[in-house]
Design brief:
alpha+beta; two-stranded antiparallel sheet; globular
Length: 136
């Protein structure tokens, strides 16, 4: 009888990464402004892990630009430490979901938690370490 999901995934011929290499790849993709997503089948089965952006990802475009819910927000949202924020604005271009705004240059930024998908990419663009993630 053939192998099924109870025996684990058939990974013959597939590339694998050690934990450290996978984390390094995610950090590199964050510096590129890409958003990490985990696509699942019925829990706990993972269908895929993507590093995407809105111009290239149909699921992100449909969900964010056209309000067709193909993907969903994370359980986390961005949290700010406004005492650290210098208002440099480097994070503004990082947010693909347009959740980060700034009223005037050199003033602290603001986050619209209703637009935040909790991807955390903003953390990679902030030289002051203003961002963290919290349960939303």
């Amino acid at each position: 009888m053939g192998s099924d999901f109870l025996d684990g995934a058939n990974s013959a011929g597939l590339e694998t990464l050690k934990r450290e290499a996978a984390i390094a790849a995610f950090r590199e993709h964050e510096q590129e402004g890409l958003c990490h997503m985990v696509w699942t089948f019925q829990t706990p089965f993972i269908a895929g892990i993507c590093n995407c952006d809105i111009p290239c990802c149909l699921a992100m475009r449909l969900s964010v630009k056209h309000a067709i819910p193909i993907m969903f927000r994370a359980e986390y949202v961005a949290k700010l430490d406004l005492e650290k924020c210098t208002g440099c604005g480097k994070c503004l271009s990082a947010c693909q979901f347009k959740a980060i705004s700034q009223k005037k240059i050199q003033q602290p930024i603001q986050i619209d938690l209703l637009k935040c998908y909790g991807c955390g990419v903003c953390r990679s663009f902030c030289p002051q370490g203003v961002y963290s993630l919290k349960i939303g």
